Amino acid sequence: MKPSTTPFTALTLAQQQLDVLDANLLRRRLKQTQSPCDVAVTVGGRQLKAFCSNDYLGFANHPKLIAAMAEGAERYGVGSGASHLISGHSQAHDLLEAELARTQAEHIDEARALFFCTGYLANITAITALAGLGLQAAKQNAGISIYSAKLNHASLIDGVKLAAAQTKAAVHLFDHTKLADLNNMLQADSSSHKLIVTDGVFSMDGDLAPVADLLAIAEAHDALLIVDDAHGFGVLGKYGHGILEHFQIQSDRIVYIGTLGKAAGVSGAFVCAHKTLLECLIQKGRPYIYSTATPPAIAHTVLASLRLIEGEEGQARRAHLNQLIAIWHHELQLHHWQMSSSMTPIQPLVLGSNAAALSASKQLDEAGYWIPAIRPPTVPEGSARLRITFSANHSTQAVRELIAELQKIEALVYTASETKAV
Question: Is the full-model pTM beyond 0.85?
Answer without folding.
Answer: yes
